[in-house]
Amino acid sequence: MEEVYKNLNIFLVEVIGFPNHCSLDCSYCDWEKQSFSPLTELELVRVRRHLQAALIFIRRHYPNTQVIEYSGGEPYVHPKVVELVLEIFKDYWVRVNTNGLHIDETALEALKAHGRVYLALSLDGHTLEANSYRVRSQKQLDRIIEGLKNALEAKIPVALLCTIHDRNIDGFVYFVDWLEQNWLSEIKQGRLMMAAHRMSSYGRPHPFPSPAQKQRMGEAMAGSSSPVILPIREHYEAMWDDDSPCTIYRWAASMHFLGNSLATAGRFTSFRCGMRGVAPIGEFALDQEMEWDSFSRAASLSVQMDFSFYRCRCFVDWRAFDLIFSGVIPMERAKKWFLPLQDQRVQQWVRDYQKSDS
Ligand code: SF4
User: Could you confirm whether the keyword Iron-sulfur appears in this record (predicted)?
Assistant: First the structure.
């Protein structure tokens, strides 16, 4: 057997792309979605087998991983798969990306039972206008906000995913005020946080904010003393700066399951940066251990390559973590900002990463 490649610096492994169906149809979403089909018992058995293989794979190649991010499509169109992810990745922080429409009692019970889980819940503002690229009615928006409220009441940490576009940028400061008015205590405990992100495009036209709007938001953020903004003010300073360096590709790994692959062949594609699918490493099958060796080789070669070649310019919410890991945002401040960063194991990882990087 080939020597196993281990990347000790990996903090996050994204397990994404399943299901490829979503209960919303955001007009700025570039993901190729499929129509819904329920999973058969046999497919669920395969999902379990592939997730267990993914766990072994991650332990072998990325032994220091702290967070498993699970996203689709919308994970909760197959709640049983979310339950399996929570069961199998019980020793990690699990982040479940969701549109917030399905946070019911059963979902909350499973999240609470895990104990080291947080929701990354998409919300572009508190008004229908701000969410008009995502939701179809006030009723739908109310349901998402109810899901947020219920998650916080159940003491489940929530990271709000706010995509900044032309219809919500001018109201962003009012959104921040609204969060403070409703959940100041949760914000101060690090149970509710938000690192807003820029809209990205895979080449399709998108409703980008105008330069004047970006300038106004930049000025508003620079003058903000909100506990939502202040702990990560450097994140907002970097938001419209195209030259601000991003090093997420050094500490994140990706397993993108395309189509129904998690429930069928268990094949995944890995990218040096899975956030935007940049720098493909190759496609591998979890069922074929011999392919794990070729993954090892490809992955170790990929860390040696010059990433500047890709000239990527996106700005995702994880940039706030990038700024924390690189020491731009001090850990003492970051700990108060988001509860998982108070975990001793996570703090040790950050110390080790900073030592390896110095
Ligand atoms: S800029 Fe975007 S694509 Fe490039 S490394 Fe950062 S997150 Fe990945």
Answer: yes
